Structure formats: C-alpha cells, structure tokens
Amino acid sequence: PRTMEASTKYFLTQATASTLLMMAIIINLMHSGQWTITKVFNPTASIIMTSALAMKLGLTPFHFWVPEVTQGISLTSGLILLTWQKLAPMSILYQISPSINLNILLTMAVLSILVGGWSGL
C-alpha cells in the first residue's frame, strides 16, 4: 500500500506539473504565434513555466511530494526517480533560462538548499 500511495502521489504531481507546462506553452503560443519554448514572450507564461519545472524538479516551494514519494519506494526506484527523471526538466530549464526571471529561480535554488540543509539536521 505504501508503494501504491507513493506512486499515486508522484503521478498526480507530475501530471499537474505537465498540465501547467502545457498551459504556459499555449499562453506563449497565443502571444507569439510559435510553438517554441526557448523564447518566452509573456511574463505570465514565464512564471507558470518556471513553477511547473520547479514542481517537476521538486524545488522548495513545490517540494511537498519528494519526501513522501522517496520514503515509499525502493532504493533503485528512488535512485532513478531522483536522478534520471530530473534530466529532462533541467534541460528545459536550461533552454528557457534566457527568457525567464532569474531572481525567482535563484530564490527557489537558495530556498531548496536551506530547506534541504535544515531538514537534514
């Protein structure tokens, strides 16, 4: 049951983040007329896209799912989930980094470091 609960939480969180990412891409499409994510033309789309990728990566404001899912899965699954599954969102974040507000991203990174450090005490 614990594995099934962790899998359900992971699936619902990732599905929500993917939906937000698609919504940001569609908002960007409405403003630019292009299906590109490398140039974000709308600040709302930029914030939604950054939030969706932060949710996929498990950064601090959106990290609610990471401890519960990690505790409910095996070591091998946890290794794959916490490393390999983060490469695609990181590459998307790298591609859109010139178009997004880096202060928000820096704040999320610092908060992730602080919360991770304090949680490990």
UniProtKB/TrEMBL annotation:
Keywords: Electron transport, Membrane, Mitochondrion, Mitochondrion inner membrane, NAD, Respiratory chain, Translocase, Transmembrane, Transmembrane helix, Transport, Ubiquinone. Its EC number is 7.1.1.2. It is a multi-pass membrane protein. One of its GO terms (molecular function) is NADH dehydrogenase (ubiquinone) activity. Pfam families: Proton_antipo_M (PF00361). Belongs to the complex I subunit 2 family. This is NADH-ubiquinone oxidoreductase chain 2.
